[in-house]
Amino acid sequence: MAAPGENLRVDGLRLWDSLMEMAKIGPGIAGGNNRQTLTDADNQGRHLFQDWCKAAGMTMGVDAMGTMFATRPGEDPDALPVYVGSHLDTQPTGGKFDGVLGVLAALEVVRSMNDLGIKTKHPVVVTNWANEEGARFAPAMLASGVFAGEISLDHAYSRTDLDGKTYGDELKRIGWVGEETVGARKMHSYIEYHIEQGPILEAEGIDIGVVTHVQGLWWLEFTLTGRDAHTGSTPMALRVNAGLAMARIFEAVQAITMAHQPNAVGGVGQVTFAPNSRNVLPGKVVFTVDIRTVDPVKLDRMRAGIEAEAARICDELGVGCAVEAVGHFEPVTFAPELTARVRDAAERLGYSHRDIVSGAGHDACWAAQVAPSVMIFCPCVGGLSHNEAEEISPEWAAAGADVLLHTVLETAGVVA
Ligand code: HGY
Ligand code: MN
Ligand code: MN
User: Fold this and answer.
1) Mean pLDDT, rounded, of the chain
2) How far is 222 from 390, CA to CA, in rounded Å?
3) How far is CA 394 from the centre of its chain?
4) Probe target for ligand 1 pocket from 36, 89, 97, 132, with the most ligand atoms within 8 Å of CB
5) How far apart are CA 29 and CA 43, in angstroms?
């Protein structure tokens, strides 16, 4: 298909300025961001994004999960919109670009279309999905999961953070409970631009990642019940040591993951000890095992192996063991017609590109359940992400945004 304009490019400087402006909100302690979902910082970032969207002539809609949809009208009012976006919430020690690049590059695409006086057949909707990270309220991609009909609104509203605050209460507190029914919007397609969060593109000197698949995931929350006891006076043989059970389960996760190589990952990012006192053996230990692979059979085999091994370990130590699957999605395959379009756009713009599987989960995983979807990656320094030192170059950011612009224009259909 003929390109809408061989040399159409975004304004890379304006995109970078917006990224740096947003990065001032919810600063971290080491140069990154702590703008966790439904915090006051998230609220501030949402308002800045809303102001920018209105200044670009878009109208804002918000659904009952707090996801934001800024619409640029199309010439055909009956045409389903092309959705383009990602997320503005960050990890507690997050970077400036994870998610934010996709939302602000989508805004830059609209700003560029406005500058160039381009009209499209389909409306274009710039999207900020609520709670993509799942750092404060598990699971990740919560709002897009409700949108796709995979998670109920009630379940989502009931999710609690470590302080016992619920998603529903916190969304109400910051004033972002939208009127729209979650999932009522119908999509023509969904396109998401994101940093790779892995080392491949930078190591190979490639400008653009054409994301064909996303690996599947299980988040298994283990609750181990031991017995609070004095770390000094309790004989070793009398201990009901939930902490020791946790350590052995961590080793089992590592061993089972390594036994399922290549292309499988497993680990634990969050543990809570109760009572968490230096001289008390923990009566309760809660942690979430995160396992991922692109092979669905392997994914379920890893889960079964870890659960069986955890039960054996706890039985041996006399520790109680409960496990709940708090997050899951099957491996995702993106729409071939859209991945081909991304490849063509990169080719035409003179950017090097390669197909790639996403190691991280994204809202596009759930969008792909309800509409043809695709993702575009740019490199990131050292493949580092979920770390305040996350870094990309302005050139990398702009190159991916150029490809996003062309992919959106070809999908939304330029009207002369
Ligand atoms: O967990 C993930 O893959 C994403 O960063 N939420
Ligand atoms: Mn992300
Ligand atoms: Mn992330």
Assistant:
1) 97
2) 30
3) 22
4) 132
5) 19
